[in-house]
Design a protein that fits this description.
heterodimer, A: Nucleotidyltransferase, domain 5, elongated, B: 2 domains
């Protein structure tokens, strides 16, 4: 059976980390064999949803219990929902945590309902936490969105329709290609692509181009390409982005054609 | 304590990333107000109109975010991603991509780890592609483009993700170190 201990270091002598979501390492220990592996936390900066990233890591490594100093009730309830036991209030080294866990689980075969002071039994504040999380997600969306909307105002005043029609000439293939190119350069929350795309439509840019723009906004990321290469290798990243770019064009064309058919069928 | 302060200083890059763009735009506005107040006023007015049109869809976005947070445990991503094979694997990876939140760069380290632990490249490609489908943004998308368009595009996006996932897995892979 595997347990995960959030730690400040990468070995058994490291201290158990105070906070689950911001610990530098997650030490995954097989309590039966004593083998362990230290996984650097996927969270490089303190950010919204950091706890979730660590939970996903722990669960994906098959940990059945997580031992840490403290973790928020929301994170704890998520882990319990994922079938992971949460033990908080632990201090000392990772080895201490493991020994203590072993002792208590040898006393009780079922690794539940022991460590009574430590076991996190939280479920009641779920609504508040959900609201708080939603609010946080919503707020992080706003700054860029506000920037985009303000930019659209500038665009409205300074960019003439002539300029746009000189780029988007009305040729389906070419316009779609341009849309895909613009979407590939930019990246970020898709909401921004909807707002920009919606405004472009008002300027008479074709839905083909706007659809290609929306599709590549998320699926192709030139800005993120270096990070994607670093994470998954050159072949995967180039292949994935290249394919996604090429696919955006037929997707855009087929979407608009289907839409036209559906609209005709309904009316 | 020192640990905490170190972690707090980590807020900075995210902060910069989030606010840099709107700040640059505001600076442009400030300059414009000096040079040509009339045009700046027009730009503000036009932005205001865009905002007004977004109030209702944005409120709905918040409601859906709240519901997702209430009923969908984000750890489900771990249960879904890279699990199962065949059609089941595809569906689970796509679902993981759809329910995942947060910026994409935050997911790279975790996906890399999953890949090293045996999650297929096609699962990761399908996950990344399906991030284009965001249930909580539907109100905004529908406001601008209508239901029919949104449903059509979502279905095609999910199908395309499978194509990308399949293609990524059939191309010869470079040798691992």
């Amino acid at each position: 059976m595997k347990i995960a201990v959030s730690a400040d270091g990468s070995n058994l002598n490291a201290k158990v980390a105070n906070r689950f979501s911001t610990a530098e390492y997650l030490v995954i220990i097989d309590v039966d064999s004593g083998e362990f592996e230290a996984v650097p936390s996927p969270v490089t900066v303190r950010q919204q949803g950091a706890g979730v990233q660590v939970i996903v890591l722990a669960v994906s490594r098959g940990a059945k219990a997580i031992i840490t100093g403290y973790c928020s009730p929301a994170v704890a309830s998520q882990m319990k929902a994922s079938g992971v036991e949460v033990l908080t209030g632990m201090t000392g080294t990772v080895r201490d945590a493991m020994e203590q866990y072993k002792k208590s689980s040898s006393m009780m075969k079922v690794p539940e309902a022991h460590h009574s002071p430590m076991a996190a039994m939280i479920n009641k504040d779920v609504l508040i936490h959900a609201a708080r999380n939603a609010a946080r997600q919503f707020v992080t969306l706003l700054p860029i969105l506000i920037g985009v909307v303000l930019l659209i105002g500038l665009f409205d005043v300074f960019v003439s329709e002539e300029l746009l029609t000189s780029i988007f000439s009305g040729s389906v293939a070419l316009d779609t290609l341009w849309g895909a190119c613009f979407g590939s350069i930019f990246a970020g929350n898709p909401i921004n692509s909807y707002v920009i795309g919606g405004e472009l439509l008002k300027y008479g840019v074709s839905l083909f181009a706007v659809t290609a723009f929306i599709v590549t906004w998320v699926t192709v990321g030139l800005v993120q390409l270096p990070a994607e290469i670093a994470a998954f290798g050159k072949r995967f990243a180039l292949l994935r982005n290249g394919l996604s770019f090429l696919l955006a064009i037929p997707i855009a064309i087929v979407t608009v054609l289907i839409l036209n058919l559906l609209e005709r069928w309904i009316s | 304590m020192s640990n905490n302060s170190r972690q707090r200083s980590g807020n900075k890059p995210i902060f910069n990333r989030m606010f840099l763009f709107p700040i640059v735009i505001l600076v442009i506005y400030a300059v414009l107000f000096v040079i040509s107040p009339g045009k700046a006023g027009l730009a503000i007015k036009s932005s205001g109109n865009v905002f007004l049109n977004m109030i209702i869809p944005l409120s709905l976005v918040f409601v859906i975010m709240l519901l997702i947070n209430l009923f969908l445990k984000p750890a489900a991503v771990a249960k879904f991603l890279g699990k199962g094979s065949g059609v089941k694997g595809i569906v689970l990876s796509a679902a993981a991509g759809i329910i995942s939140t947060g910026p994409i760069y935050a997911w790279y380290p975790l996906l890399k780890d999953l890949k090293e632990k045996g999650a297929g490249e096609s699962s990761i490609a399908i996950f990344l592609y399906n991030r284009a489908v965001k249930p909580f943004l539907l109100p905004v998308m529908v406001t601008y483009f209508g239901w029919l368009y949104v449903v059509t595009l979502i279905i095609l996006t999910i199908l395309a993700s499978v194509v990308v996932g399949f293609s990524v897995s059939i191309f010869p892979s470079s040798k691992k170190k």
